[in-house]
Structures are given as structure tokens and as C-alpha cells.
């Protein structure tokens, strides 16, 4: 059964574009509290269903689809790499799903090709033909041409063959840059998207007695409140620890924590989350440029929002995604082992396992162990790499982590990476543990 929050979102989505939406009317129509209606309308705004216009109000708008990796067409690839079309011109409108660098034997290369992918390769006519037969377009580097029969095959299958004067790895870097340029344009979640606004924020005045804290605590069950002065500027935070053993007539400003961390509505959610986790802060007041209270965010709200963002469709496939999808865990009682295979996306320009992927393996393995042991989420504090040896493409590797120290809030893990019988990498990770 859908929650009230979900019911309101469906109701908003069913409204015609141009309809005006108010918190009070939505609460009345759907028989929910105004607070529930407000939070759902705020979420609808984050999803692009509604927009708040000054002196007009909140209006139902046409939802815009966000740009993503799938919108990168072969025609756009030509512009990115200064290329020219050799064949298959009628397929330029098709969208690119992924690209494969052909720096390997033909049999190995074919395993990574699929429909609507792009093979980036040099002067290898047989590979050009096989790629087209697999439904993939071809980008020939180094300014080379290809056989006429392959051009005819490209026209027949409506799959572009493009030639560029750049080398293979320069081309791959240029396409990656274009992808990440689109990533940057993706909407960034801000504090203002998730914060509890002033109307629903409970706070204390610096001159009030701490008996007022007990009143708010009984009313809301919360134990932390921002403290303001007479001009509504944030001057402190007061928690249950601050008032224990203090007479109820004591003024709040005598027990509060002064100069608390604050954020603006324009602050990125990622920055706020980082500060709250590392400083161990449960709530942060949201202020304007004059430091006046506008609302607050809690660590629980931030973590929930980040989890929600992680569940959204992402642009393309990141290195972490590739590492995660190919990593298999083996539990041997007191010992854990992880197995993976070095794919083309994991390699550097020399065709060996890149240092960045090496670090990603270390982080992912450590996180999985902590999750498996139900110790909570791992926040990496330090990774010390002692050595790393070249690991070739298509190599099978085994990652063996060993927990050196573990406490309630921190962990230290020794990690070795093996290829066949050799140790090819060794590192130590130190991290903090955050309860779920």
C-alpha cells in the first residue's frame, strides 16, 4: 500500500500542467497534515514536477528529462573527435551505449562488443567487419581508411564508420570528457532540497530558561535544538548532554555550545554530509547570508537523501560500478577472499591494472566486509599503498583482506592482491564506522 507521501506525489503528477498547488488545499483534499503535504510538494519540486514562482505560487509543470549518457549520439562523437564519416551515415542519429578500446586480440575484443556500442581501433579491417556484424559502430584512429566492402556493410547496417586523426587513447579521453561534461550538468542535490524549513523548526532563544528545552522535548521527542538571539541569528546548539544536572531556571546561553557549524540552502548535500559524519554532528542549522535561522537538517535526513540519490539512474557506468559488479566474495570461515577479472575499463594506457582501480578494489572489499559483519557503513580515512605490480588485461586476481584492528567506531584492514601465486599489491586501509 502506498504511503501518504507517495499518494500526494501521484496526485500531483495527475494534475494538468499549469494547475496551482497549495500546501493547505493539498492537505485538505487528501486528508493529510500540512507538514506531510509540504514535504511531498518539496519532493515534487526536486523531481521537476512543480516549480515555485515568486508572487505566483507553486505550479504544476511539465517534467523535464535529465540529460544522460544515452543521449550521446554518433553524430555528436564526430564533433568531439573532429572525425569524418566513411560509411553508415544513416545511423548517425543512433545513441551510444558504451565504447570499447580495441587494444587486444580480436576474440577477446568481441566479448565486450554489443549492439549500439562503439569500437575504437586502428587500422584493423577484420575487426571493423566483425564489429559491424555485432551491431557496433566503428571509430578508426590514426587517420586510417578501411576497405570499400566494409563501408558498404556499414551502409547496409546503418552503423557509422568514423575516421579521426587522433590516437586511440586521446580519442577515449575526449569521449570520456564529453560524458563527464554532461555529468556535471546533472542536477546537484543541495541542502535547500531536503531541509526542514523555518515554519517546522523548533528552536530556543538564548535568554530562555532550560525548562523550555523540557517543554520542546516533551512536545517533539527531539533532544537537540538550535539557539537564536533576538534578531533570530543562530548563536548556538543545545542538547540533552548540555542540560543534565543543571537547574531548570538556568539560561540556555550558559549551557549551549557556541559558534555551531551552519550551512546555507545553496550548500551541496555531499559537503554537508561529509562535515556531519566527520564531526559527529546530529543537526546543523540552515541560515541565510545574515546568519538568521531558516531551518535545519539532521544527519538522518542527509543520509536518507544520499541513499535516495544513489538509487537513481546514473549517467553511464563508473569505475566503482565496474569494480562492484565483477567482484565475487568467498567466505572461508575466518578468512574472506574476493575474486575479479581485469577488464579493459580497469586498465591504464599500458594495458595494466590502473592505480585508481587498485584503490577502488581496496575500498569496495573493505566496505563489503563491514557490511557482511553488520558493523555499519565504512568511511575511508586513509589508504596506504605499499606496492603495486603490473597486472595484465584479462588476468584473474584474488583479494585477501585481513582485519588488523576493529572497534566500535574505527577499523584497520590489511589487504593483499594476488595474481596466480604472486602478490601483486599490498595496502592498509583505516576507516571510520557509521551505524546505519
UniProtKB/TrEMBL annotation:
Instruction: Report the residue ranges that make up the CBS domain in this protein.
Output: 195-253, 256-314
The family database entries (SMART domains) matched by this protein are listed as: CBS
SUPFAM superfamilies named in the record? CBS-domain pair, HprK N-terminal domain-like, Thioesterase/thiol ester dehydrase-isomerase, Winged helix' DNA-binding domain
Keywords recorded for this protein, A-Z:
CBS domain
Kindly give the PROSITE patterns that the UniProt entry links to this protein: CBS
InterPro entries, A to Z: CBS_dom, CBS_dom_sf, Diverse_CBS-Domain, DRTGG, HotDog_dom_sf, Ser_kin/Pase_Hpr-like_N_sf, Thioestr_dom, WH-like_DNA-bd_sf
Q: Name one Pfam family in it.
A: DRTGG
Kindly give the PANTHER family that the UniProt entry links to this protein: CBS DOMAIN-CONTAINING PROTEIN, CBS DOMAIN-CONTAINING PROTEIN CBSX3, MITOCHONDRIAL
Protein name, please?
A: Predicted transcriptional regulator containing CBS domains
Taxonomy, top ranks, is:
Bacteria, Bacillati, Bacillota, Bacilli, Bacillales
Amino acid at each position: 500500500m502506498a504511503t501518504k507521501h507517495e499518494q500526494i506525489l501521484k496526485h500531483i503528477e495527475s494534475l494538468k500542467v499549469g494547475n496551482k498547488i497549495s500546501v493547505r488545499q493539498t492537505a485538505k483534499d487528501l486528508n493529510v497534515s500540512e507538514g506531510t503535504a509540504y514535504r511531498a510538494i518539496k519532493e515534487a519540486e526536486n523531481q521537476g514536477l512543480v516549480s515555485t514562482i515568486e508572487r505566483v505560487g507553486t505550479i504544476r509543470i511539465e517534467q523535464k528529462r535529465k540529460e544522460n549518457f544515452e543521449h550521446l549520439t554518433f553524430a555528436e562523437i564526430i564533433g568531439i573527435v573532429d572525425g569524418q564519416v566513411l560509411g553508415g551515415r544513416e545511423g548517425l542519429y543512433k545513441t551510444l551505449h558504451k565504447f570499447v578500446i580495441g587494444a587486444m586480440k580480436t576474440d577477446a575484443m568481441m566479448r565486450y562488443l554489443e549492439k549500439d556500442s562503439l569500437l575504437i581501433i586502428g587500422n584493423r579491417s577484420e575487426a571493423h567487419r566483425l564489429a559491424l556484424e555485432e551491431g557496433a559502430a566503428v571509430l578508426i584512429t590514426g587517420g586510417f581508411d578501411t576497405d570499400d566492402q566494409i563501408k558498404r556493410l556499414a551502409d547496409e547496417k546503418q552503423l557509422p564508420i568514423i575516421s579521426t586523426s587522433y590516437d586511440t587513447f586521446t580519442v577515449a579521453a575526449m569521449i570520456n570528457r564529453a560524458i563527464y561534461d554532461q555529468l556535471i550538468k546533472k542536477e546537484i542535490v543541495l541542502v535547500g532540497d531536503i531541509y526542514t524549513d523555518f515554519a517546522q523548526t523548533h528552536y530556543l532563544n538564548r535568554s530562555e530558561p532550560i525548562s523550555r528545552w523540557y517543554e520542546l522535548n516533551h512536545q517533539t521527542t527531539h533532544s537537540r535544538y538550535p539557539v537564536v538571539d533576538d534578531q533570530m541569528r543562530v548563536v548556538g546548539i543545545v542538547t540533552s548532554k548540555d542540560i543534565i544536572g543543571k537547574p531548570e531556571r538556568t539560561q540556555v546561553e550558559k549551557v549551549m555550545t557556541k559558534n555551531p557549524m551552519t550551512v546555507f540552502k545553496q550548500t551541496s548535500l555531499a559537503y554537508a554530509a561529509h562535515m556531519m559524519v566527520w564531526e559527529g554532528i546530529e543537526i546543523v542549522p540552515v541560515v541565510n547570508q545574515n546568519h538568521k535561522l531558516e531551518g535545519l537538517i539532521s544527519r538522518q535526513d542527509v543520509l536518507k537523501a544520499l541513499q535516495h540519490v544513489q538509487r537513481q539512474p546514473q549517467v553511464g557506468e563508473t569505475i566503482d560500478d565496474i569494480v562492484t559488479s565483477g567482484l565475487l566474495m568467498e567466505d572461508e570461515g575466518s578468512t574472506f577472499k574476493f575474486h575479479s577479472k581485469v577488464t579493459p575499463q580497469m586498465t591504464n594506457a599500458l594495458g595494466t591494472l590502473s592505480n585508481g582501480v587498485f584503490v577502488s578494489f581496496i575500498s569496495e572489499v573493505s566496505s563489503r566486509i563491514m557490511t557482511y559483519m553488520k558493523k555499519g557503513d565504512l568511511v575511508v580515512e586513509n589508504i596506504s599503498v605499499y606496492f603495486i605490480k603490473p597486472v595484465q588485461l584479462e588476468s584473474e586476481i584474488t583479494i585477501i583482506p585481513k582485519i588488523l584492528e576493529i572497534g566500535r567506531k574505527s577499523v584497520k584492514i590489511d589487504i593483499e592482491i594476488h595474481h596466480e601465486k604472486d602478490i601483486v599489491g599490498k595496502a592498509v586501509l583505516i576507516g571510520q564506522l557509521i551505524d546505519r
